[in-house]
Amino acid sequence: MSDDRETAADAELIGRLRIIEEQPLETRAEAYAAVHDELARRLESGAATPTDE
């Protein structure tokens, strides 16, 4: 995997986390749980991401 692709994926996640951090605490907790669930599903499924091409 190239550094460019890793950086794009990192930037997307960081942007998403910044948006979550701006939310009220209760909403933030739910949003973090959703991110956790999504990442866990990706890991468990072994699904290829667009950056794996």
Helix count, DSSP H or I runs of 4 or more residues:
2
> Could you tell me the mean pLDDT?
84
Q: Choose one word for the global shape.
A: flat
Number of strands: 0
Structural class computed from helices and strand pairing: mainly alpha
Low-confidence stretches: none
Helix content: over 70%
How is the main sheet built?
none
End-to-end distance: 9 Å
In terms of quaternary structure, the protein is: single chain
Radius of gyration: 13 Å
Question: What report would you give on this structure?
Answer:
The chain has 53 residues and is mainly alpha-helical. It is 75% helix and 0% strand. The protein contains 2 helices and no strands. The mean pLDDT is 84.
Features:
flat, 53 residues, single chain, mainly alpha, 0% strand, 2 helices
List the helices and strands and how they pair.
Layout: H1 3-21, H2 25-45
Describe the structure concisely for a colleague:
With about 55 residues, the protein is an all-alpha fold. About 75% of the residues lie in helices and about 0% in strands.
